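Q: Start with the shorter request: fold the first protein.
A: Done. Sequence, then structure:
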Amino acid sequence: MRGPHAPPLRGSLPQDGEGTRSVPGPGADPAWGGPAPDHRAPSTLADHEQKARELLDPTAWAYLFGGAADEITLRANQQAWQDLHLRPRVLQDLSEGHTRVNLLGRTLAHPILVAPMAYQRLAHPQGEAASALAAAVLGAGYVLSTQASVLLEDVAPLVLGEPARGPLWFQLYLQSERDRTLGLVRRAEAAGFEALVLTVDAPVQGPRDRERRSGFVLPPGIAAVNLPPPHPAAGARGSLFDNLLRTSPTWDDLAWLRSQTNLPILLKGITHPDDARLGIEHGAAGLIVSNHGGRTLDTMPATATLLPDVVAVANGKVPVLVDGGIRRGTDVFKALALGATAVMLGRPVLHGLATGGANGVAHVLRLLIDELEIAMALCGCSSPDQIAERHLHA
């Protein structure tokens, strides 16, 4: 088992005059490169959240961390993992223990990936460049959002140049015109992205009341820099069904996308068994159980609740990943016990980004990996493939 400290970050980040803020790891490991011991420094993911809230502008906080409507699903995501109880085994052989998993033909150091999240420069000036570098150094897969605030061509080298990296994927929203979608796909292919993550659960944005009450608008200098300017008609007001939803994606669009690229395509936002079945029939390389972090349709069940039915349909034919509400290594363990191959981490990454840039993200990931190793050892599992439903208390 490895120690609790993040390694020093290698690679280079775009410089914008502010540099990367540094947060010392617990115990102020000299390798962290941070200042003298600071007993107020974050020691848990919850600590990072609290500190991030103190640092960020309230309107940016409302955008990044708010949910849809009454935020029932947002709260349920985290609570559902907490409500699952572990059932450990003792006196098991833990020699040669590891956290490695296989995903889409490659071996990952651990089953944790960074989820796609928009406009990360709201949390730190280096945004996606910092979170991508941290993920690569910690061996976590990284999924870049279509709505990233850093060019995809600038993010990819930070990941691809790190020997210990996990997979590099590009999250895709299908655009209203196919040539715009295809332009994004070709850029992702050329930059070295290894899979597409097609978001399928958000044909429209949910009613994010907290965000609207805050009066949030994107500040100058932050934009979805990988997207071309929208057509003037895209801002037309009126019924959703008369305007935007006339071009909302369908299963036919997935078939078209598969015909245009050799990259594997994972579907993000699969929560219904019937959609899981259709996704597999249409050639999806993987399914991601996600309710968009509680940001689209409120009162959906938590992803921990939805996961088992999707796993049952997949039945080993394709990998199933899950996101939403994961805050502890025990949550990762529970997701694997329910049949997930890996998890995707969202908001805590932004918390770490706000508190310490690349080093803050690395610390968040390091904490979660360490907690997963501890949970595995205490439950009597020496590898992820030993984690099963029998480790959950009925």
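Q: Next, the second protein, separately.
A: Sequence, then structure:
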Amino acid sequence: MNIIEAIEDDRLFRKVLGGHLDSWSAWITALKAVYGLPLSPRKDAALFKRCTNRDYQLLPRDGFSTALFLTGRRSGKSRVSALVAAFEAVLAGKEKRLAPGEMGLVVVVSPTKEQSRIVHRYLRAIFDEPLLRKQIVSEQRHGFTLRNNVRIEILAGDFRSIRGYTLLCTVVDEACFFGVDEESRVRSDTELIRAIKPSLATVDGRLIAISSPYARKGWAYAQHAKYFGSNTATTLVWNCPSRTMNPTLPQRVVDEAYREDLQAAKSEYGGEFRDDIAAFIPSDLLQPLVVKGRQYNLPRYGTKYVAFADLSGGRKDDAALAIAHRENRVVVLDRLQRWKPPFSPYDVIGEMTDICRKYQVYTVRGDQYAGEFVGRAFNNHGISYGPAKKNKSELYLDLLPRLCSGQVELLDDPHLLKQLSGLERRTRSGGRDIIDHATGGHDDLANVVAGVAYTAMRPVLGAMV
């Protein structure tokens, strides 16, 4: 049984799509192409051409082992992710290629827990069908174990728990948003795909990525740039607006979104990569600057240290402190501390001053937007505080050439590397660039490192004695 037959079968997948398949016809065409099923010249060819810019008559007979679907919000992406995972686990037959006693995994990985819960609910609904319910041996918190020695795993922002297993199929939900949200332990979709692909090789498992487009960076953007419209590509790239995949989405919803924020709506509903957002610091640039295994440096006499702090109200955002010194033209990061909310800002400032005293730092610089209470609180602990002369974007712009020229020595802190590589350059009117974290992300550690690097390169007034 192929995937389209399973979708059309009332005992299998039809009900999870609402029973009426007309509104799902675009997804059915797309899945035909992925699985090497014939496309109809009358019903499918024009849609396929519009969404892939390829000739349907030149498709590989066996379909595609890698497919990327880039379409907007409310287009049915999560439901299709669940459907593909269920088919691959129960009906695709890949488990027959496993060694005796070997368990195969079908994995759905999303960037956030909330996104994973959505997919999990759809999978739960699929396996509520009596014929499929019989296939479940046990249900775990993050998935199901089936009678055919296959386990379905629904993961959020991480892939380490599946290392060492043979993957029959991986579905990456909202691929463009890995590394955007703070809870994701994966810095980017590039890192995720690099980790997944070797585990798919044993059984030639499929990699299906489904996402709304976002910034012009990472694996998804590179795949689109390289393979969209190529008749010889072995990766299928399908790109279209939300209403192409879901014609029941009201046009007024889309129109209102375009009126409110054109750039966001072009990504969220138009299926376009945002041209006002780009990666700021490539992750490959950072690795050579990290001193492996170094968590901090102890204070040294004869060394002049500087400090930079990022404070928050203690309810939602983190607070952070960085201490560094300069060796010729290189800024060496010596201490990096983060406080996660909830916390009392006054208590955190007290802890910051204790750390600063160990390095004989009695002046701290900080964000321009810190409240007046920050300066008073530091003063109460005998340490002066002043705002940086540059704003956050300017500090990041100052940091980039130092990183590119190897003039910064970083601590081995994965949260810092993730925040630095997750920074985005956003172009605003007048050509002015804003550097900031992505929506839902954080940059407290990145901010203090940029600030302390700038501060360390100012004229040295004295040394620790």
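Q: Describe the second briefly.
A: Residues 3-275 form a domain with the Rossmann fold fold (CATH 3.40.50.300). Residues 77-90 form the longest helix (14 residues).
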